[in-house]
Amino acid sequence: MGGVPTDRRAVTRNPGMVAFLTVSAACTAAMPVVSADGRHLLFVVVAIINLAAVTTLVRRVPRPERLPFTHLALGTAWMLVNAVLAYGDGWFIVAGDVILAVSNVHLLAAAVTLVLRRGRDDVGGLIDAAVIAIVVAALTWTLLLQPHLSRAGVSLPLQVNLLASILLLSGVLGTLVRLLRSARSGPVPLLLFTGAVLVNLIGYVAVIIHTGSVTAQSTALLDVVFMVASCLLSAAALHPGAPLLARSGPVPRDHVFGVRAVVLTVAVTVVPTVSGVRELLGIRGDAALLTVGNLLIVALVAFRVARLGRQRETAEHRLRHQATHDLLTGLPNRTELWNRLDAALTREQRSGRPSIVLLFCDLNGFKQVNDRLGHLAGDRLLTQVAARLRTVVGGEHAGHPDEIPDVLVARYGGDEFVLLCEDLAQDVTAARLTAHVRAALAAPILIAGEPVTVGASIGVVLSDGHRDADDLIRHADEAMYRDKTLRRSA
Length: 490
What we know:
By secondary structure, the protein is an alpha+beta fold. 68% of the residues lie in helices and 7% in strands.
């Protein structure tokens, strides 16, 4: 946790946060009893405090993690400008709408980048949470907000702007709730930040119903709501644990794929279904919802489906790899060796010319290393031997002029490795491969701080065009044991 205090007592030990909470509580309590101009002034005071709090947070965060908090600072700065312009009327209100939209863009960017950083291992879950929240917001819009705006004569462009803000805020709120689910005891700043978004969204909906705009003259009660949201945002920024918000958090347990598929399918059909029902009931169609809501939901669902497809492909590839490769060394396993050998024999029979070279290698002295230094040391030795064999014969790291490309190096089992190559010059290739293997294992390998030297007993078999895979492996194994016996005698 980087030594940053996150407990509740840390708040009371922070004089700046205590002072802020005191001033904010006083301003909030005064909102219902002062005039409209007085409320504007209080908003300006709190906006200045907010900007100072967030600016302080930016300086407390390491530079690579500052992007969400930089957007947060820009958003609070525009909120201050909007609070100052709230003194005017006429075109000032129009300018305030534009400035508030810019502020919301920065605040949205702050929330999105924060969510993506903290939930970087749970992108799919975050998208699903955002889609669900947006669908709920879309229903709320069409059943509650849009009828009020239509009766108030609010123009379609302004309705689209208001709807987009509500849907985006709702999507962010859904992702924050998803993050809170994984933080069982939950970092306090994340809870405060989520509360700020929720209260701001509630105020947004209430003021739209009341005035048809978010910057027009509102009631004292609505001003209190926005004041609370602003205070929660600053409290989150001032909290000692705020810098931890940008760090990756745990991933909650996911639902099964079938449930996710049903949710995404329903999400795509909600907006067209609602619009169709409105038309059947003789209610004027909701153009704003069809334009903004459907576009946003379909884009998120399409991205989610594409991601699910990529995740499935990755999982299938991983399963195929695990089925054909050794988990310890990463080399092809015995099953893959037999598949490759069968395929090589088929090519050899079609060409009518023997070309297969097979080396069966067994490490000398491996058991002694395993018994003396332990199984972990033995595993380390096997991985180092596998890396040397793979490099020396070419494979993935070809480049040396004497290397032999297109050689399969497989772990047959235990400390046994098999090399398979196809070359018409079988005798020359067999000799070169044998020399490569012995040279690769000649240098000591550092295991558990101790240099260890292991050799290999090697059995070489050349295909004659008539043997099958069983015969080749069996003869190579017998040749390996003959080589081991000769070396022991020597």
